[in-house]
């Protein structure tokens, strides 16, 4: 019986480091890699409630297109990593949201019965982490799955 091991990816070096750590230390023959990416949609310009409807400009359409292209390139990078470096099957678990990536990662992992969630640690300052929180902290404290947080390289 194969395990589905979910690895959270974004464009950061920490994400790539987590993927490489997984390949070297946790992957077993027959495991399937679940590539989780939460695509953050570009925000619409802010306007007050009294302003009426918000016109969607050509620039906004262009920013969405560029954002989707970046996510597709990221997915292709990690699919290639699975095929060419780990030699394993993979499952793309891509979603988009304006909301908390941490909550979505937990939901995706539970829905797909993941054996583990592997993710990199961005290394926010203590102040930033206290003020904003971090995705890895959220997942670590809210997931019903085991979580491996690969620390930043010093």
Automatic annotation (TrEMBL):
Which Pfam families does this UniProt record tie to the protein? Usp (PF00582)
| Every UspA domain range | 7-151
Tell me which Gene3D superfamilies the record gives: HUPs
Checking PANTHER family in the record gives:
USP DOMAIN-CONTAINING PROTEIN, USPA DOMAIN-CONTAINING PROTEIN
**This protein is called what?**
UspA domain-containing protein
């Amino acid at each position: 019986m194969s395990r589905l091991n979910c690895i959270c990816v974004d464009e950061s070096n920490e994400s790539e480091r987590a993927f490489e750590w997984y390949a070297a230390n946790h992957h077993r023959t027959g495991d399937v890699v679940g590539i989780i990416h939460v695509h953050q949609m570009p925000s619409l310009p802010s306007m007050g409630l009294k302003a009426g409807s918000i016109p969607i400009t050509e620039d906004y359409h262009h920013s969405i297109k560029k954002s989707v292209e970046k996510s597709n390139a990221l997915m292709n990078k990690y699919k290639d990593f699975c095929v060419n470096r780990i030699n394993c099957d993979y499952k793309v678990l891509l979603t988009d949201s304006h909301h908390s990536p941490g909550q979505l990662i937990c939901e995706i992992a539970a829905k797909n019965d993941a054996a583990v969630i592997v993710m990199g640690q961005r290394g926010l300052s203590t102040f930033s982490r206290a003020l904003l929180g971090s995705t890895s902290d959220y997942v670590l404290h809210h997931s019903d799955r085991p979580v491996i947080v690969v620390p930043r390289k010093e």
